[in-house]
Write a structure and sequence with these properties.
single chain, mainly alpha, 9 helices
Length: about 210
Amino acid sequence: PILTGSPMEQPYEERSQARQLTAIVLAAIAIRLLYQAAMVASDGSFHNGSDSGKYIDAASSLLATGQWPVTDRMPIYILFVAAFFKTAGGEALRAIVTAQAFIDGLSVLAIAIAAKALSQRLVIPAALMAAVLPNFIIHTSYILQETLFTLLFSCGMCALLWAIRSVKPGKLLLITGLLFGTTLWIRLTLIYYPIFLVPALAVALKLN
C-alpha cells in the first residue's frame, strides 16, 4: 500500500489529505483572484503586450470576419479568447483571467494527483508548490496560453504516471495521447517532448 499505518488508519489519512488538498486548491484560486484584483486597483492591464495582442487580434478578427485569421498562434487558445469576447463583451479580459484562476486551481489538483502516483508523501508538497509558484500566478493574470497549456499538460502527465503504475495501462495511455495531442494545439513546443518521454516510458513500462 502507498499509505503507511494500519488499514483502519488509512481511510482517515486519505480523508485528511483530501481536506488539505481541497483547501490548497481553493487557496490557490483565491491567491490568483486577489492578485488580479490588485492589478486592477493599481491600473494594471491583463494585456501584456505583443503575445497577448496576437491572441486578442486573432480572436477579434475571427469574430468580425467569420474566417480563420492569418496568425502564427495555435488555435485552441484563440477559440478560448473568442468565446469570452462573444459572451462577455467589454468585460472579456477580466472574465478570461478570472476563468484562468479557476483553471489553474484544476492544474494544482492535477499536479497533486500526478505526484500521488510517485508517492503519497508528495501530494501536499506538490500542491503547495503549484499553488504559490509565481510563474503560475502571473501567467494566470494575462491573456496568455500558458494556463490552459499547464492544465492539459498536467493532466497528461497525471494519466501517464498512473499508466506506468497500472497493470493494464492501455486506456490511460490512450487518454495520455489524447491530452498531449490536444495540448499541441495550444503550444507547439510539446512536439519535442516525445524525444524524452517515449524512451523513458518504454523503460518504465518494462520495469513495471
